[in-house]
Sequence to fold (622 residues):
Amino acid sequence: MPTLYDDVFIAGTGFHLPGAPVDNDAMDAYIAPINRVSGRIKQRILAENGIRTRHYAIGPDGATRETNAQMAAAAIRAALADARCDLANVELLACGTSGGDSIMPGFANMVQGELAAPPMHTHTSVGVCASSLGALAFAAGQVQQGDARVALAVGSDLPSRMFKSTRFAPRGYDADFNAHFLRWMLSDGAGALVLAHRAQLDADAPRLRLKWVHQKSFSGDHPVCMQLGLNLEGNRSYLDYDSSSAAEADGALALRQDIRLLPNLFDIAIHEYAGLVQRGLVDPQRVDHFLCHYSSERFRPVVDELMHKAGLAIPQERWWTNLATRGNTGAASLFVMLSEFVHTHALNEGEQIFCFVPESGRFTVAYALFEVERPGGAKAAEPASVIAAPHDPAAAADPRLARLLQQLAEVWHDYRSAAWRTPLVRSITQRRFTVEAYRQWMACWIPQVREGSRWMREAVAHMRPPFDALGEIVETHASEEQFDFRILFDDYRSAGGTVPSLDELRRTPGGEALNSYLHAKAATESPVGLLGAIYVIEGTGQRIIPALLPLMQSQLKLGPQAWRFLAYHGANDQNHLARWLRAVQLVLAADPAGRADEDIVDTARRTAQLYLMQWEDACPAT
Fold:
């Protein structure tokens, strides 16, 4: 299951294509055919792949004009300029490539050196076309977990150095179709993405959120399809020869692709895609733009046909590629494609960009999903998955209160992030929510809500000086909420719930655990720690529920009588939280020694853990 990202955004994109565009007629000046066989292969391949122009980092004389690291550095500079970000702010550089300028050090280290970049975490992903998505997945994971606030994901390839005619002179190459094939397919380029944590984005920054990256290798299922460094039979490494010249003469340093194996790759890719759909990670109907990296236009109808056979087709008008004008740049292709796409299209909030990269090396497939959350730099509402803490610690003038609110905010953000990954919430945000799931959620939540006023009144009964004044506030709160469960039960019945009596409803195991904990806590002397529990529970009603409510209403189309409880709490829990803050201030004033602070935070943490169990149990994965 791929990691789902809440806080990873593409702050900028850029690409670099070396030299001027080279059309099909001008290719001979760079990688001329060796003989008539080679010339016929060229005509056949160019007629099928649909590429009209491409770019080379070598000149007509065969000399390298730009290195792979230099191309990557140029793409990075373009992406940083687009993000209005300084290189000094970057904390991670992840680079994907089919091969750097040197066997070692790692390519990312060479790019860092080319940039004269400050010290940072580097990561090199070596493979073929999907290596760029490997770099993206690594960088996104570091940003999501907070290890890097700003990161770079780069894809860069320079295969033309292997294709010049002087490298194809040794005996045997003239009749090797698999070696000649890629000469007319691949070209040079680099693409880069600037990844930033949500907290790092400027007010006017674009909001293209990375939702997930999924990559899977099937190398154990099939033989090598595309390789460099093995002989024609694939059983001898170039390092096993007596000399590099002997390895070259035997074809061990020629880039080859066994095109007979390619149909297996696309079959694997579509099955994996179908699995993503079944798990609710992508919905073909919701995909607005499909960026598919294929090496030749010949394969476009193959992918389309397989999608149709699986019943998961994405309409052709939603496909977009720049293969014809930019060429197949290997590991760079998807980033070059994505960068040009976002700079040439007006994207609307909520639109999804689904990316697909099949890698033929030894069969790897990779996918990524992006969603536009704030298009065109326009101010938009905070996305539903970003749920601020109930109280802003920075707004507290009292240092002790600010410290307590900061600790509670840390509990909250862990809780919010975990809640957003539960089956129930994911079914809502991924538009798979059903009326039956809503009824099931209500059925197990009603008896939990029923207990709220009971454990609060139990706490009031055990309140002792100097906290007895707190009892009055908690009693007021309990009185306001003591009949909320009846409203919720009416909503349940309006949504088609069939259980006739409140007493027949049962809490989930998570609800039982939460209820037992809160009653046990309330039975202790002066249980001021329960303010931590109220923080989580009321915060859920005032922060999470309002974010989910419009998504649920848009999917279920139930009447207003089915939403009264959720709508009420989304609007009213703000007042409840204001009252909560006054209660906390009262406790802090009555407890100068500071013993209550730890109790409140600890209770909040335990309540969040148990509430998450209730979220997990509330609805099965759909």
The chain is about 45% helix and 15% strand.
